Amino acid sequence: MPKAQGLKPVASNRKAFHDYFVEERLEAGISLSGTEVKSVRAGTVNLRDSFCVFKDGECWLRGAHISPYDKGNIFNKDPLRLRRLLLHKREIRKLAAAVERSGYTVVPLSVYLKNSLVKVELGLCKGKHSYDKRDAIGERDSNREIARELKARNKYNQGSD
Question: Which residue of 41, 118, 125, 150 is 20 to 30 Å from 67, comparing CA positions?
Answer without folding.
Answer: 125
